[in-house]
C-alpha cells in the first residue's frame, strides 16, 4: 500500500495531539507502519498547530510536503485555508466550521476572512464541513470537537467502527470515554 498522509491542523488547546495519537494507535493496530509528528507551532499560546500522521506498508518520514496530504482534518475554518496548499489534487478537507479569531483579528490589525468554506470549495477542494462544536456540546463537552472530527473522518476509511472505539479505549482517559464514544458516533452520523 502506498503511504497515505493526514494533516491535523488547528489552534493550540483544541486536542489535535490527542486526535493524532488516537489515529496513530488505530492505524498501528490495523497493521500499518505509522509515523506521527510532534506538534508544530505555538500550541500553548493559542497559535496555529499541525501534526502529521503518515501510514502505509513502510513509512520513512513523518513529514508531509505541499501537495501530499490525502486528508486535512481542521479544527477551525481559517486553519483549513492556511494549510490548503498541502492538500493533494483529489484530497479531502474535513473541517469544523467554528471560527476562532487569530491574534491579528483580536488586536484589530486584520479582519477574519468572509465565507472561508465557500472559498475552499471554490478552490476545487473536496470539503466536508460541519459544526463540530455544536455536536461536541450535544455529546457532553465542547472539548470533544477532536473526536467529532475523527468520527467524520472515519467515513473515508474502510475500517470498522469497533476499531475506532477500541483505539479510543486505549487512548482516552476512562472518565471521558463514554462521552467521547458518543461524540464520535454523532460526528460519524452527522
Characterize the structure shown.
By secondary structure, the chain is an alpha/beta fold. It has a single domain, classed as Pyruvate-ferredoxin Oxidoreductase, domain 3. It has helices at about 15-30, 75-80, 105, 115-120, 130-140, 145-155, 160-170, 175-190, and strands at about 5-10, 35, 40, 50-55, 70-75, 85-95, 125-130. Strands 1, 2, 3, 4, 5, 6 and 7 form a seven-stranded mixed β-sheet that branches. It is globular and about 45 Å long. The model has no long low-confidence stretch (mean pLDDT about 90).
Task: Give a quick summary of the entry.
This protein has about 190 residues and is α/β, with parallel strands linked by helices. The chain has eight helices and seven strands. The longest helix is centred in the last third of the chain and has 16 residues, at about 175-190.
CATH class: Alpha Beta
N- to C-terminal distance = 30 Å
Low-confidence stretches: none
CATH fold naming: Pyruvate-ferredoxin Oxidoreductase, domain 3
Helix coverage percent: 25-40%
> What is the makeup of the main sheet?
7 strands, mixed
Count of DSSP strands: 7
The ordered string of helix (H) and strand (E) elements is EHEEEEHEHHEHHHH
Mean pLDDT: 92
CATH architecture annotation = 3-Layer(aba) Sandwich
Shape: globular
* Class per helix and strand makeup: alpha/beta
**Residue fraction in strands:** 15-25%
Q: What's the helix count?
A: 8
- By CATH, the superfamily comes out as Pyruvate-ferredoxin oxidoreductase, PFOR, domain III
CA radius of gyration is 16 Å
The total domain count is 1
